[in-house]
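Quick question: what would this complex look like in 3D?
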Amino acid sequence: MKLTLSEPKFLKDSVSIISDLVTEASFKITSDAIELIAMDPANVAMVIFKLLSSSFVEYNVKEEVLLSINMNDFKQVLRRAKANDSVTLEIDDNKFKITFKSNTTRTFYLPMIEVEDKQQKVPDLKFKSTITTTSDILNEAVEDADIISESVTFIVENKELTLIAAGDLSKAHINIKADNDTKIVCDEEKVKSKFSIEYLKKMIQGSKISNKVMLQLGNDYPLKIEYMVLNKVQLAFILAPRVDND
Amino acid sequence: MKLTLSEPKFLKDSVSIISDLVTEASFKITSDAIELIAMDPANVAMVIFKLLSSSFVEYNVKEEVLLSINMNDFKQVLRRAKANDSVTLEIDDNKFKITFKSNTTRTFYLPMIEVEDKQQKVPDLKFKSTITTTSDILNEAVEDADIISESVTFIVENKELTLIAAGDLSKAHINIKADNDTKIVCDEEKVKSKFSIEYLKKMIQGSKISNKVMLQLGNDYPLKIEYMVLNKVQLAFILAPRVDND
Amino acid sequence: MKLTLSEPKFLKDSVSIISDLVTEASFKITSDAIELIAMDPANVAMVIFKLLSSSFVEYNVKEEVLLSINMNDFKQVLRRAKANDSVTLEIDDNKFKITFKSNTTRTFYLPMIEVEDKQQKVPDLKFKSTITTTSDILNEAVEDADIISESVTFIVENKELTLIAAGDLSKAHINIKADNDTKIVCDEEKVKSKFSIEYLKKMIQGSKISNKVMLQLGNDYPLKIEYMVLNKVQLAFILAPRVDND
């Protein structure tokens, strides 16, 4: 296989975000796309990443390849890519070969590793509510909640999304109404689920990919957060809810 | 009470600076202003803060309120305010309620606490010298002294302000002459006092409020540092001198 | 002696870089220049610094002076210089006196110390290859190598400079071809030497002085890295090779 990107941004940003959640993972490289579906070690979060062949200036994949690597090593290498470097991905002598080209040619070789559970599947989820908003609004809301507590409750009700974080004595309510920036669809009168802020903070880094985000929710049900650039890249996360007795 | 600021800057910056000196404090909210007078826990520094009602777009205070809170919690909340957020302060169900409004509505509730010595009074001081200069000049002088020693001596003599810091083997002299930027008035031939640089570094953060600063000095006497924006905000500090045997 | 620079940049940047390699050193101040030749404490690296009298607006040296000081103290003082400060260097009462002048006058006094081996000599080296390139290209190459290993091999062959860093399982090749930016001269078919990346990272800070750099190399031989601004300043480093058994 030989794949060349004319600019490294989407791959670089995505790998950087993913490496905060999963340390080792497998990319499946098909004739259509580079894909990754992986669970974090605590089994709380799933990452779904797809970089479409249409993002590449050269995309030559003869047969499907499963490329298992240490995500942190890959992130370290991609951080060395400058904005105007072209990036070529190959497999050479059982090593993963990454080449940056501008006025110099810089080649990195990373070991391919053995990963268990290579073939994760995206679970079939039925959400009750779908919200599209700007990445900024979601980022601010999660960061607001972060100063108060370690978890935050998402409530969709009356065309409004409300995030509630409660500490021992302090509390935060973030209220986001449907408007030009924010579309809220909900099949039920009220939908409510609670999530870890630590995980959310890693996922909202997806705002580097797109300034739009889609949220999908249910009642005490997983949250799906999705960043997408049409015909280029998709980065999505599924986060298990916190179900507690309060 | 209900108080609304159209932009959070003065409150946000002031609370951030004050929280470096005092951890818990009481705001007195009168029909004219929000005021705070507090000593640092070591009783070396006093903070005097006043945000005038004319800074607010809505200022509704029926009776004087004493609002005691943890300054660090308040700082954390105010840091979440964006430049174009309006900020509303209320008391709701015995909690301090802070609301930020822009495209979203974000509400924080902080506990009100018990504070000893709520009613600090500004001491009646008679200074011998008054200097007005730019915040930059004072900031640079304090930071210069900081690389040499933990204390710095302020001397006013011959229409000049000199800061002297002496280490074991090193020394710094910062000489500031009266000119267009700097006015120096002194009732005595020479005035001299020594202060802690650690405290000064916290106080000169007041340069975020105004690019002008007023210093008032005496002989082995407290220093008053004052930042002010006319009809808006006043942030002043009184720092006890270091009197040593040299 | 009395020496005045109209702007502190070259002295400030050079002393900052040198202080990362040597803690105490002697400047020789002659009628032509301020010079420093010093070894790092581990005897692996030599620094050669020369700030020519033509850089100064005032250069008054009656007899040669040997000025031994703590480089870190000197760096701390020079960091306080603002871009538009004039800098005057003097010896006053057996102290090293540094004065910054703009709207204020700020004077620092540092102790002069005793240094062993004051009079280092630059060794007489015969290099096989000389390369001139941009500081950016060298910086990127060293930083690329840094993510893989603690040492890097420089190879000059076929009008190309290649840097190779090898980790346990990972590897990086940085290939720099002769072109408009890069001139490569080599007296032998192939030249190869290995160096510590930790030291190289300190030396490439010389890019603050000039965006051009000259490299001189041999076989298992020291590397000389030189940054120069004509008629102003020269900052060069000699780095001993790592000779290992592979």
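Answer marked as accepted. Chain C has a mean pLDDT of 96.
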